[in-house]
Design a protein that fits this description.
This protein has eleven helices and 32 strands. The chain is of the alpha+beta class. Keywords: Glycosidase, Hydrolase, Lysosome.
């Protein structure tokens, strides 16, 4: 049975997606391990730009599949519009039905493939599309992928025409079900006196907008027929000597018939090695370690390059993998980078901005890192999904630590923790590991945000998921982020290395009452540490703040209240930093969009910056604190009625 035959039934969007998941009707794609890079043996062709686009707004949401819109140009099926790639489609138009659309959205475009590529392996890669994707080339099935935020690719050689026009079609379904990550539900409104036939709503279990579309780059790239398919690098050091352990695969295996030449290259161009085996250790004398920029201002974020040359009977493949030499360890009270205590002063983020939604945008990435450095941020969490590889590139290069989080947000109910869910979650963690394993900035995996970890089902679920990523990667700590309640009933924290906890005392509870924050927060964090004997990071705390709204004395939603609120939290952080507390992360770096609801005024407003990345009063307050911490100064001055202004 083919994926298309499934659509012959009478299935709504939720049931259709579940059928694909349960039946395993996903065409086998090539697991993305290596980021596409040009080299002496590899070429790339960018497919970004304006694509034709239309939504399938039929009542069943299956008209496009039934009528096989993929079998010809999308413009032949009905009216299309131009849609930028990469971007979310939701905020591009002025049509509310497109902004809030749930179901299949269709894209296509033409492209050419040079005859010069005929004797090469040609791959088409989508860096991210949300959430369930089906791709065709010239009307023929190419690949399907379940899940957003991570790349997928497949070989196109047998489907493309050389020196002739080709077209690629992708259908993307943003429906969230109990077994997707993040999960959600579809609710059908059956009272036809109040709703039209077939009317349904998508219920979200996360507090951010369900942006959809081709969010990151699309490209063609080539490799030789025999090609390097995987590089795994782990590092250590002894004194001034760096140890670079590498393992290579060619065409998916450690090919004994291939010839290898592997060298480490430093910034000055000096080579270390060569090694000639598919796995070995290369020694670096007088090694430069990778440090967060706040731990070593003179030589932070030092990046080396592992240059790999693989020769087989089919030719030679060359690939360059950036990496840094660093170690990560935890004790019951410390987080160590290169055997020195690291204190995280950071923020949680979102991939979110005006117009483009979650679409990749290089000026925005540059601005975000400028503002993170201005604020003194030395770490961020990829809340609540893996961010673009280009963002993590900047973290590697600029020395900002990353807690790499999966899309496991909103795991609230038992039907989110069944066998289908745990298998998919483990699959996603495997894809995350394969993509990000060689990044020095990534120091910890987070498998979920605020799950219902006190449910009986949570024990097996998180033991399985955490055990899976720990087996894949024994070199990094693993965590999930707790919603803060239930330290005495939690069933999953026993499996993590670091306790990451979100708290909103003075906001969601005892709203506007800052006087109880220190008492409540101290008791809670101390109890978490006493029960589990592990270091603690506050991964979220914050208060919604409308930029430009002021009142004295402070009142909720004013800029003054955001500062007063934070000052109470900081007093607790400073007291516990000498014990077991290893990090603080504001929620959020910048304002971001949510669904329409009466508790949100055009989005979540807890940002230090507004959505346009301009600072609120709290940004200056946090900047003084974080720069004081980075420079070894007493941040307590920021907890008084005023604060100093650092240059």
């Amino acid at each position: 049975i083919s994926a298309m035959e499934v659509t012959a039934g009478k299935f709504g969007p939720e049931k259709l997606l579940i059928i694909f998941l349960y039946a395993g009707l996903l065409l086998p794609g090539v697991q993305c391990l290596l980021y596409p890079r040009e080299s002496e043996s590899r070429e790339m062709k960018d497919l970004n730009g304006m694509w034709d686009f239309r939504i399938d707004s039929s009542a069943s949401r299956r008209e496009g599949l039934d009528r096989k819109w993929f079998s010809s140009k999308l413009s032949h099926t009905g009216p299309v519009m131009s849609m930028p790639v990469p971007s979310s489609y939701n905020d591009i138009t002025v049509d509310k039905s497109i902004r809030d659309f749930v179901g299949w959205a269709w894209y296509d475009r033409e492209f050419f493939v040079s005859a010069d590529w005929q004797n090469k392996r040609i791959m088409m890669r989508f860096d991210s599309a949300h959430y369930f994707s089906m791709v065709w080339i010239n009307g023929q099935e190419l690949v399907s992928h379940n899940g957003g935020h991570l790349p997928f690719e497949a070989e196109v050689n047998k489907l493309v025409n050389f020196n002739e026009v080709n077209y690629v079609t992708i259908a993307i379904n943003n429906t969230l079900t109990p077994t997707t990550l993040p999960p959600g539900t579809i609710q059908y409104k059956t009272d036809t006196k109040r709703y039209p036939p077939g009317y349904f709503v998508q219920n979200l279990q996360m507090d951010f907008f369900n942006y959809a579309g081709i969010h990151r780059s699309v490209r063609l790239y080539t490799t030789p027929k025999s090609y390097l398919s995987d590089v795994t690098i782990t590092t250590n050091f002894s004194g001034t000597e760096g140890l670079v352990n590498y393992a290579l695969k060619v065409n998916g295996t450690q090919s004994p018939s291939a010839t290898y030449r592997v060298v480490v290259i430093d910034k000055a161009g000096k080579e270390y090695g060569p090694a000639v085996k598919p796995s070995d250790i290369i020694h670096i004398q007088n090694v430069h370690l990778w440090w967060p920029y706040t731990m070593n201002s003179e030589d932070p974020a030092y990046m080396y390059t592992l240059k790999i040359t693989v020769t087989t009977a089919d030719g030679t493949d060359v690939y360059r993998q950036p990496f840094g030499v660093r170690t990560v360890k935890t004790t019951n009270s410390t987080f160590l980078i290169n055997n020195k205590a690291f204190y995280c002063h950071g923020a949680a983020k979102h991939e979110d901005s005006d117009i483009r939604g979650k679409g990749l945008d290089f000026p925005l990435i540059a601005r975000d890192f400028v503002m993170m450095k201005w604020l003194g941020i030395n770490c961020f969490r990829t809340s609540h999904y893996p961010y673009a590889e280009e963002i993590l590139d900047q973290a590697d290069q600029q020395g900002i630590v990353v807690i790499d989080e999966s899309p496991g947000v909103g795991i609230k109910f038992p039907d989110n923790m069944g066998n289908i869910s745990v298998a998919h979650h483990m699959e996603v963690m495997g894809e995350m590991y394969a993509r990000d394993k060689n990044r020095p900035a990534v120091v910890m995996w987070s498998v979920a945000n605020e799950p219902a970890s006190s449910l009986p089902e949570a024990d097996h679920y998180f033991k399985s998921v955490i055990g899976h990523i720990r087996q894949l990667d024994p070199t990094r700590p693993v965590t999930f982020v707790s919603g803060g309640g239930g330290w005495n009933t939690d069933r999953a924290a026993q499996y993590v290395d670091v306790l990451c906890i979100n708290h909103y005392y003075g906001w969601y509870s005892d709203t506007g009452v800052t006087g109880v924050i220190q008492r409540q927060l101290t008791e809670d964090l101390t109890n978490w540490n006493k029960r589990f004997n592990k270091p603690v990071i506050i991964t979220e705390y914050g208060a919604d703040t409308i930029a430009g709204l002021h009142r004295v004395p402070s009142f909720i939603f004013t800029e003054e209240y955001q500062v007063d609120f934070m000052r109470e939290y900081h007093a607790v952080f400073d007291k516990l930093r000498t014990q077991f507390f290893v990090g603080e992360m504001v929620w959020n770096f910048a304002d971001f969009m949510t669904i329409e609801q009466i508790t949100r005024v055009v989005g979540n407003k807890k940002g230090l910056l507004n959505r346009q990345r301009e600072p609120k009063m709290a940004a200056h307050f946090i900047r003084d604190r974080y720069l004081s911490l980075a420079n070894g100064l007493d941040p307590a001055s920021c907890n008084k009625n005023g604060w100093k202004w650092l240059p």
